[in-house]
Input
Amino acid sequence: MTSLSDILSEELNISKTTVRNTLQTLRDVGLINCGDAENKGQLVSLTNIGEIIIERLRDKNKEEWR
Output
């Protein structure tokens, strides 16, 4: 998660701490899978519920643009 935090921080021009805390929150509420102290190097991915939420947000966004 550290590498992703660094990349997102630079790309979005926000602090690494903010990015790291946000990613940790997303992991804690079950929206993403990612490494931790015991599982370093695990790729970040959406959980099933994370994918459902993203899909619903995309659908809602499509409806608003019609």
Observations:
- The chain has one domain: 2-64.
- The domain at 2-64 is CATH 1.10.10 (Arc Repressor Mutant, subunit A).
- The chain has a mean pLDDT of 89.
